[in-house]
């Protein structure tokens, strides 16, 4: 938006003039043009020109004091309007916006329709001229929007950007002067030369900027978000050193934050207490829950467990003068109606137990088995911290089927070699494991499991699994495997409890 300052001034004042308008700011004691309108640009005035030179060239001139803060507020307002087209909107100072429209263009029947509707929305907000460019990388889009004659401009590769002048690099004035003296006028003339020629003369930022404009490097935008802070703070008139008073203040702050979470129908997963001592020392204590919560009693109990587990206890010293509490990670809260099913209460109690154990002993020391989508037993589960909110997927037919009793709850990481005596039908009659022979009373199988062709082959090849029970009542999970031309070998993979 090349005339954003003029559009903002016109929008605020509502008055107009036929005189060219410029915006003036002091730079090292000299009044310079920080922005111009369309009439001043047509008359040959440019940003960075001294006001005295501008008046010498165009005596009839309307000079207005620049207001960067007002321009910034206007850009932020336009950025909020652009959120209707994509959730990823970033400010591109001094007069631009950067939008990541990946996955959004189909909602507007293509990139051309999205650009047209965005241009219409910005013009309705008071912007006189909007120059648009759609390109694979943000820097390429910025260069095309500012220096390409086409508007809007759609680029799929670096063909269009190579024809832009060297000013599109937006490098320092000394660097631009050196490029012009060397006879380089377009980006293509720079890109076709070895990068070593420019690395020795210019900074690394120059070569990085060139790579980004050509699309060889991708520097994603950082969207501006409206992050809601769930925070409560207590400033003490006198530093507080009593642990009872500190606990009471923290309890009030936790209740306040939980009320804020309830107003937005969310629950907290990660909470941080910040204790600022009078001598400038700041202590942060963090707790994490496996499920979203806004129950003050649960959070306070976790904090007490955390304080007791600290190797360095919370020392108030000369007292805390500021105590803060905030929820730094929140998730949607799903309201559920209580039932008479005792299993639902048991799940909540297990989640609370996991939270307390993880708080006291550390998240990485409390683990839980999670199922993976694989038929190979040793690949069908993994160990992850139990504080994670939910399993990666439900225990199904393709995983271990442990809940149905078809698999042992725990299996050996490396199957144990065993000696098996089979009958005429190749069904196991006896198993010798750890120098003890077990006579088989019942055997169920075989269940054939083959290697997954899209993953590295195991050492056991295609396996035939049997669930066997000895005459003493012990139940084993054994298999017969062969890889390549090797003879069949028997292994014990798990024991049923």
Automatic annotation (TrEMBL):
Where is each UmuC domain found? 24-144
InterPro entries per record: DNA/RNA_pol_sf (IPR043502), SulA_CellDiv_inhibitor (IPR050356), UmuC (IPR001126)
What is the protein name for this chain?
Answer: UmuC domain-containing protein
Lineage: superkingdom: Bacteria
First and last residue of the signal peptide: none
Q: Which UniProt keywords apply?
A: DNA damage
Q: Name the source organism.
A: Hyphomicrobium denitrificans (strain ATCC 51888 / DSM 1869 / NCIMB 11706 / TK 0415)
Q: Name one GO biological process term.
A: DNA repair
